Structure formats: structure tokens, C-alpha cells
Amino acid sequence: MFVRRLALAAVITLGLLVAVAPPAFADSGSPTLSGVISNLTNWIVGILAGVATLFLTIGGLRYLTAGGDPGQVEKAKTALKSAAIGYALAVLAPLLVSILASLVGG
Asked: pTM here?
């Protein structure tokens, strides 16, 4: 039962990621370093937010289905903490990528 819910949460998360992805446009020129860095930042933020949302969903489902079991509640809290860390990294990703870009001369 939990595996089905987890699979459903993963499918919904991936569907949302595909639905909100920016459209791809044909570019006649060669990619610039700043364009590559911008695309990399967008991908990192998207992936981190998607994974954090998945962990948030898993943690919430575990907490709701724990039924007072301390082991399951602790697993749920761990998943929720992981989601918070993932969201924090998603917020900080543009800053980290700009720092790396300045180090390599981008």
C-alpha cells in the first residue's frame, strides 16, 4: 500500500516537473558560457525542488499513516527535515552557481 502511494507521488511529481518546464526554442547561435550556466542553474533548482517535494510528500504520508508508532514518526520527521534541506538548497542554488561561475571566469 505504501509502495503504491510512493509510486503515485513520484509520478505526480514528475508530471508536474514536465508540466512546468520552460519550452525549448531553437537557437541559431552557439551556446555561450553564461547561457549554459543559466540553464544549469534552472535545472539544478528544478531537480532540487522536485526531489524536496517528493520527500515532503513521503514525510507527510508517513506521518499521517504512522498511527502513533514512534519509529514511523521518526522516519517521517527525517523525511520532512530532508525536504527542508532540499528546499534550502534549491533557494541557494543560484547563489552557489554564480559563485562557481565567478571562480571559473564566467
From this structure: 0.62
